[in-house]
Amino acid sequence: MTSNLEKIGKKIYTPPEFYEYLESIKEKPWYVKIIESAIAIFMTLIIASLWVLLMFFLVFGIEKIHQYSQECDNYYEIQEFDEPIPIVWTARFDGCLASCWGASFTREPHRRPTPFVFQVMFQTMEKRIADEFMQKGQILRVYGNWTDISHSYGSVFGRRCVPTVEIEKIEITDL
User: The pTM is what?
Assistant: First the structure.
């Protein structure tokens, strides 16, 4: 019995890809199936483990950022120095912190778009900021050690994290 195509005298062209497909769907030996399944399970476990690790770090990283971002808008600047940095800054007194056991100063002259504000504290809580240094607009020279950029008084400084300086000495200057 002959097909209609043969009757017409035309042959059907079969692309080589068709034969490759036929070869690929043939039954594979049992041991090949086991090896392929083991590889698939192993890869799934690796991907799942990486996903869990990523989520773990993402959640705890976001929690830390969220914690500081509630305190100050520039939370990314928070840092604590390994060694204090000795400073001598010219500044003007802004106000008391912690009943004048510490104070807020703005560095002068400030060339930044926002004033360079910093907080100062004595190394020990035995001294308060002297009244002579609390005159508004008075220019002072602050000597001390810059220890960190902190969110200690973020709400006081307009939601900004600011440098913390341990005071060694304050002088009135006539600039």
Answer: 0.54
